[in-house]
Amino acid sequence: MLSLYHAPDLETLGELATRLLAQPLADPFAPALVVVPSQGMGRWLTLELARKQGIAMQLEIQLPAKFVWDLSRTVLGSLPEQSAFSPTTLTWRLYGWLCEPTNLELAPRLAQYLDGGDERRRLSLAAKIADVFDQYLLYRDDWLAAWERGETFDLGPDEAWQALLWRELTKDGHPHRARLLDDLLQRLYSDEPLPGLPERLLVFGISSLPPHHLRVLDGLARHIDVVVCALNPSREAWGEIRDIRELARQPESGADDWYLDVGHPLLASLGKQGRDFFDSLFSLTASEGSQEFGLYSEDEDLRDDSLLHALQNDILRLRTRQPDERITLAENDRSLEVHIAHSPLREVEILHDQLLARFAANPALTPDQVVVLTPDIERYAPFIEAVFAPREGSPRIPYSLADRSLRAEMPLIEAFLELLMLAQSRFTAEEVLAWLEQPAVARRAGIESEDLPLLRDWLREAGVRWGRDGSQRARLGLPDESAFTWRQGLDRLLLGFAAPPQLAGDRAPLLGEHWPLDALEGARGQLLGRLVDFVERLGSLADQLARPRPLAEWADDLQVLIDTLFDEREAGETLLLLSQACAALRDQAQAADL
Fold it and tell me: Which regions form coiled coils (predicted)?
């Protein structure tokens, strides 16, 4: 049975989800399956359950696409764990196709775009096309089906090469969502029992879903209980409202009709996607055996006691105020404010001041009740860290940054990605020392953090500037000279260690092609040996990274790089993520047949 609950706020839906998930399943060891629109929504629900129940466990939280693919594997069987048409796998398949000159002859527009570019442009194009095809699988499967049949829709000059690419991708028979949908729905809409299905499914916090996913939910509801908790800003039927700009393009409508069609202008202009989604969602509940519940306040419980509440209530009622229906604001109404600042730093400073003022005015308000949204977190992150950093004598506001890239959150990942550029590296002294500043790298090399100033002094005295040796400089188009390279500098340091004291120092004679530095003894000699071993290890990895190889071999060799250069005792969690990424790359290579 399909049950739809819709409400204008997450708190109401969260209370409902808590009561629902508290109902035990027949199998006490089976996890409760929950589908959410984003990872952030899943984390919010987990924390809400933990807050209300004291614990949140035995939850299997999935995103919609992953859920539909896993359901297809359960119902249809004999499907791989990862689809050959997932965006990442599709990227590699497209990249392989774009690397063949004979293929590009069939797509001159692509050949023209790639002409003169490097491999990064080719991979970037493959990723962009993969993303477009992924959207087609969700919203334009009729185009894809027609292209597979050799038909076109006269969509413009870019349709020809897209149709060609899609036929190339599907000619080997790999199953994709659009091709599997009919088979999946046929099984779901049949009366035959389907083993392996979950006992119950909760779809939480959604405000939009592709039509395919809605049809799957409708079919699945014939076999198990499917509960959908949807965010709906209005309790009224708003499927027919239209944006003023949309109405203006209709010559048969006049300005007098707009009031009836617009509903609320903010909802009409910004809610088109949600409008279409709820139209489709409500149509599912019209079938026999389905039920719908709206969780909204009654008019007598609504209070326009602030500008924000008045705006929310107008949208809830689908009401448009006339020019003479002005709201009388309280003198201290600060519920909705607009601040204009001249820079991102000033924006964050204003935010900090406003939050301090709100916390001081309302002792019941706590930091965990505050969410700050920004369109580009990476742009604002440095300013947030600077302004919100604790200062002596000023109140501290605890905060955390969400949706940041792993490169920004984990410096070791940034170091790993820089190591992948070893083949193109100039091997500057500062670059190598910067890698040794990473604790996981230094510990694997046997070098302590307090050794770095001494190493820096040695390299300065040895004249190490850049370049592994003269041959590397020659590969960069420069004279084959070893002056100021690592090879020359390390040879001088090693000669200084091996030579007797009377042959070192300012009056040291020329030994071969080098002057030895001051003699190094005991533990310092061991430290020098570790430095030499680390630099030679980097050089060996640089040679390995410069060699082309199949994608699956890259995954294995990158894992070797991780094991060779990083110590898991310093960064086990980060190294686990890197190892998982290598395993995922290996799986993608297998799925893409590369």
Answer: none
pLDDT at 394: 81
User: 555 with 582: CB under 8 angstroms?
Assistant: yes
Element of type H or E holding 4: strand 2-7
How many residues make up the chain in this entry?
594
Which two structure tokens, joined as six digits, stand for 390? 């604790």
Q: What is the mean predicted confidence (pLDDT) over 265-279?
A: 83
Cα 219 to Cα 77, 191, 194: the distances in Å are 17, 11, 12
Q: Domain boundary at 388, 404, 420, which? A: 404
Pair 204, 34: CB distance under 8 Å = yes
Question: Residue 90: pLDDT above 90?
Answer: yes
The arithmetic mean of pLDDT across residues 44-59, rounded, is 92
User: Which two structure tokens, joined as six digits, stand for 152?
Assistant: 């076109």
**How far is Cα 236 from Cα 278, in angstroms, rounded to an integer?**
11
Judge whether 316 lies within some domain.
no
What is the crossing angle of helices 551-565 and 568-591, to 10°? 180
Residues 186 and 169 in one domain: no
* Cβ contact 435:419 at 8 Å: yes
Please report whether residue 558 resides in a domain. yes
Nearest to 126 by CA among 103, 99, 152, 148: 99
- Please enumerate in sequence order all residues whose Cβ is within 8 A of that of 338, keeping only pairs 6 or more positions apart, or say none: none
Is residue 556 domain-shared with residue 435, that is, in the same domain?
Answer: yes
Token pair 């340091």: residue: 493
Indicate whether 78 pLDDT > 80: no
Interatomic CA distance for residues 141 and 178, integer angstroms: 6
Question: Does 237 lie in the same domain as 270?
Answer: yes
Backbone angles phi, psi at 291, to 5 degrees: -145, 150
Strands (E), 207-365: 225-231, 291-294
Q: Above 80 in pLDDT, residue 505?
A: no
On whether both 133 and 98 belong to a single domain, the answer is: yes
Q: Are residue 370 and residue 416 in the same domain, yes or no?
A: no
Residue 94 lies in a domain: yes
Helix (H) or strand (E) holding 5: strand 2-7
Burial pattern 122-138, b for ≥16 Cβ within 10 A else e, equals: bbebbbebbeebbebbb
- Answer yes or no: are the C-beta atoms of 403 and 397 closer than 8 Å: no
CATH number at residue 468: 1.10.486.10
Q: What is the value of pTM for the model shown?
A: 0.76
For residue 58, give both structure tokens: 């035995």
- Grouping H, G, I as helix, E, B as strand and the rest as coil, residue 175 is coil
Structural domains of the chain, count: 4
- Name residue 121's amino acid: R
What range does the domain containing 475 cover?
409-592
What average pLDDT does the segment 392-420 reach?
Answer: 85
pLDDT tens figures, 137-179 = 888 888 998 999 899 888 888 999 999 999 999 988 878 888 8
Do 249 and 191 lie in a common domain? yes
**pLDDT at site 243:** 60
Burial class (CB in 10 A: 0-12, 13-18, 19+), 212: buried
How far is the C-alpha of 530 from the C-alpha of 518, rounded, in Å?
A: 18
